[in-house]
Amino acid sequence: MTNEFDAEAPERAPEDGPDAETGAEVDEAEVDEVVRVLTDDLVVVLGAEPPDAPIGPGSTFFEDIGLESIEFAALAGRIRARHGDRVDLSEIVADLDVDEFADLTVADLARHIAVARHAPAGEDADG
After folding, report:
1. Which candidate, 56, 57, 55, 53, places its Cα nearest to that of 15?
2. Domain boundaries defined on the chain
3. How far apart are CA 100 and CA 103, in angstroms?
């Protein structure tokens, strides 16, 4: 299943170079691919793309997409199954305060996943 980005979906300008939090180099093409996969996973978890809020890189999980906590847990399971133990959503969000978590976008999570996928075994993206 491939979900094309909707022209009306919130966008986010790409950030070149190292990840702001970890200092790890981030391949923007990889982040874009992870965004596409996350978008597809979100459509599966939700059962359909939200008609009033197309999913895009700048979409927030709760306000824009309307994800419920049980759906976020299902998304976490899909992420872990796809990427393995190196990408643990609970570890990614554990370091976020309430506002950061509420403002987390698809692109933000994709960037965390892209960094975490390259972390040495037994080490999360934060080092």
Report:
1. 57
2. 28-116
3. 5
- 42-92 per-position pLDDT tens digit: 999 999 877 677 899 999 999 999 999 999 999 999 999 998 888 888 888
DSSP string across 62-118: TTTS---HHHHHHHHHHHHHHH-TT--HHHHHHT--HHHHHT-BHHHHHHHHHHHTT
Residue 19 buriedness (CB in 10 A; 0-12 / 13-18 / 19+): middle
Count of beta carbons in the 10 Å neighbourhood of residue 97: 8
pTM beyond 0.85: no
Q: Which CATH number fits domain 28-116: 3.90.230.10, 1.10.1200.10, 3.40.50.2300, 3.30.1360.120?
A: 1.10.1200.10
